[in-house]
Design goal:
heterodimer, A: 271 residues, globular, B: 252 residues, mainly alpha, 11 helices
Chain lengths: 271, 252
């Protein structure tokens, strides 16, 4: 009994709301509930699964997540290996500074910096805003990419520094060099594999967050293609009630992806 | 300090530039293209943003309520989960609400919140944010309950301590850093939250994120930057305060 009440509270607060919400979403998507439902149907699933916009959004979200993770991991690895250990004294707080920035403010800052009339175009001396390349609300989602990298890279830097310390990386690299490895070999054959292997669960989990990003692509992205969370929100907010079942289908697809990724990610990341 | 200061200088520039630009924008008057610097500085945007100060207090109260309740509940629950025979399964279940996009989660909850009358209320948004932060606190706090912690607690009972004394004299001093970490992270999750708050709050729960988004949408960068500075202030303040307890300064 001692364990039962806290575990029941845990299940009620952590599991039941999500399970109930996804259960309702699934029933709505197959027409068994909802204001416009007419009984069991797989029509909405057929419409969504054959909609090129949906696959475009999925591809964009996954591609963006992978690209942001790769770019951020490269930058963070370089920074962590350059620093070798956490900064000390007055610089100790520096890597934590970007963690205090919400995605909304990061998107606003990137817009102010990279828009056609933004600060970067003025610093570079462009005479007309139109002469500056389109970097926000653009087809390539450059602004979205840079904002997400700006948010991800400091977190990964801290993660790599912590894991380097936990793994005793300086000693490992020194041992490799003692055994005849060059500095470059010590980095590529010892440091990088150790850091990437130890942070693999955290990287996968952060990739999930990036797939579900909302504020940054909402402010800096385009009408089409949209990232997954923005597309789902767009379908839910349409005046056409007939699009609601499709929104719930997308929700179920996204939930299935999250479940698969969490189950695949066997190691606990918080530890 | 690294031997080569240039990469550190670039890092300093990259990390601190938004914290310089945004306050400057909030003080600027008529800062338009192609001016690199504002023509003059003024406090009028800060003076006119009265509703932002109200939202600052409102959002702060909401985030404190969420973070304190999530941490307290998480600490209590994590103790039982740490000793449970299905500990790994329960922790895996805790990942799902944490990993799920808050805005999509909000749409899943919307029907139930409408039915129960929680939509558009402070309590409703508090509860919805608790659904996200509580599992996170469980994930952070469960690993803290090691066999050593339980042994220390049992030792205090053996030596005659009551449950209250064991908590006050043994567990609380040991748990303080991890509780502060959990509370700080839960506060940030709630403070930064926009999507879930906008959907389940229906605009009637005017947190600072909601207001800032409105000003960005209205293409009012000066007042939006005032809001952005206000959004940055509490996390920066708590980071500075918690530096001693949570983010240890490493000696060479």
């Amino acid at each position: 009994m001692r364990f039962k009440i806290p575990v029941i509270v845990f299940l009620v607060l952590a599991v039941l709301p999500l399970a109930a919400g996804l259960g309702y979403a699934f029933l709505y998507s197959i027409g068994l509930t909802g204001a416009v439902s007419k009984g069991f149907t797989v029509l909405h699933w057929q419409v969504v699964l054959t909609d090129p916009n949906v696959w475009g959004a999925l591809a964009l979200s996954l591609g963006m997540a992978v690209l942001v993770l790769v770019m951020s991991a490269v930058l963070a690895l370089c920074t962590a290996l350059m620093l070798r250990k956490p900064l000390e004294g007055r610089w100790a707080f520096l890597p934590y500074l970007p963690l205090t920035m919400p995605p909304l403010v990061a998107a606003f800052w990137v817009f102010q910096l990279l828009s056609r009339g933004g600060w970067l175009s003025r610093l570079l001396g462009f005479e007309r805003p139109e002469a500056f390349p389109e970097l926000v609300n653009d087809a390539s989602h450059v602004g979205v990419l840079l904002a997400l990298v700006m948010l991800t890279f400091p977190f990964l830097t801290l993660l790599f520094l912590a894991q380097a310390r936990a793994a005793g990386l300086p000693a490992l690299m020194q041992a490799a060099q003692t055994l005849g490895a060059s500095s470059r070999q010590a980095v590529w054959r010892v440091a990088v594999p150790v850091l990437l292997f130890r942070t693999r669960p955290a990287l996968l989990l952060y990739g999930l967050f990036l797939v579900g990003a909302y504020e940054v692509p909402l402010l800096l992205g385009r009408q089409s293609p949209r990232m997954l969370s923005v597309l789902i929100a767009q379908k839910f907010r349409r005046f056409d009630l007939l699009e609601l079942p499709q929104a719930y289908v997308l929700t179920c697809l996204y939930a299935a992806f999250v479940v698969l990724m969490v189950l695949f990610n066997k190691k606990s990341v918080i530890q | 300090m690294p031997k080569n200061p240039i990469p550190l200088f670039l890092l300093v520039l990259l990390f601190t530039l938004p914290f310089v630009y945004l306050p400057l924008l909030s003080l600027a008057d008529g800062w338009t293209f192609p001016a690199v610097w504002p023509k003059q500085l003024t406090l009028k945007h800060w003076q006119s943003a009265q509703n932002l100060y109200g939202s600052l207090l409102y959002g702060f109260a909401l985030s404190m309520a969420v973070s304190v309740s999530a941490t307290a509940l998480g600490f209590w629950v994590s103790r039982s989960i740490a000793q449970h025979r299905h500990k790994e399964r329960l922790l895996r279940l805790a990942y799902f609400p944490y990993a799920f996009s808050p805005v999509v989660y909000a749409f899943c909850l919307q029907y139930f919140f409408y039915k129960t009358g929680l939509v558009g209320t402070f309590v409703g948004v508090w509860l919805a944010q608790l659904f996200i932060t509580f599992p996170f606190c469980v994930l952070v706090l469960t690993p803290w309950w090691t066999s050593r912690v339980f042994d220390m607690e049992n030792l205090s009972f053996t030596l005659g301590a009551s449950a209250a004394q064991a908590w006050r004299r043994v567990l609380w001093p040991m748990a303080r850093p991890v509780l502060l970490l959990s509370w700080f992270q839960a506060f940030l999750i709630s403070w930064f939250e926009y999507g879930l708050t906008s959907i389940l709050g229906l605009g009637r729960v005017p947190t600072l994120s909601i207001r800032v988004f409105q000003y960005i949408g209205e293409a009012n960068p000066y007042v939006a930057s005032v809001g952005a500075c206000l959004l940055l202030f509490p996390p920066l303040f708590f980071l500075w305060v918690n530096k001693q307890f949570v983010f240890r300064v490493e000696a060479v």
